[in-house]
Amino acid sequence: MKELEICKPSKCKQLGLNFWVLFNKKNHRCNNRKATYQELRKALDNWTINEIIEPECKVYIYPDKDKEILLEKALLTRESKENKKVICVLGQDWDNNYLTTGICLWNKIIFYDSKEEQYYLRSFASQNIRTADNKLLDNSKVAGWYIDLSTLGAPSQFWEYLKDNLKEEPKVAPLSVKKEEYKFWHHVHSIQTREQFIECLKHNLTDEEIIDLWASR
User: How far apart, in Å, are the Cα atoms of 35 and each of 31, 49, 59, 110?
Assistant: First the structure.
């Protein structure tokens, strides 16, 4: 189990910004895209809410009725909504459009994947470049939306919501899922062509494994 911590980057301390990042405690440079319940709960419990600085723009916690639509915007083209449940989405209303459109320019999301028993944390936006460093973002399943898979940083309101609402450890995925994984590896020796191998991977790799494969090209 990796140890995580919620803290401000030194630059944000110097600039006096309300911006907190879920870091890998042993190595802040290590990309941290997901966490188990125990890892996340421990980091939240150890985080002291003492922020007095207001966010740089207005922020909103989206209502439950919007979560399903927002989830699709936060998924990569190769990912599926299956087995996923949104815990929280916080919008950063940089262009002051939320009150008229119901959605913000930049958004922070955490969702749970019951098959992998992991919480995923990421940002998604309606612009394809991150302004701070001109990083090009990945395409979303929804046209016109883009995803930032960097270690998640967010205003304190996001972490406060999780600290108060992430109460119970999620249930373990059904045993049938584990059997399917066994079935895949048990019969992999029967693959004889490249096309069969690719087709088998498409239907059996987890979302995280697909992302890692794509990133290692």
Answer: 12, 21, 24, 10
Q: What is the pLDDT of residues 103-161, one digit of tens each?
A: 999 999 999 999 999 999 999 999 999 988 999 999 999 999 999 999 999 999 999 99
Structure-token pair, residue 147: 């995803």
Residues 101/62, Cβ–Cβ less than 8 Å = no
Is 170 part of a structural domain of the chain? no
* Domain shared by 183 and 159, yes or no: no
User: What string of DSSP letters covers 53-99?
Assistant: SPPSS-EEEPPGGGHHHHHHHTSBTT--STTEEEEEEEEE-TTS-HH
Its pTM stands at: 0.77
* Domain ranges, residue 66: 4-165
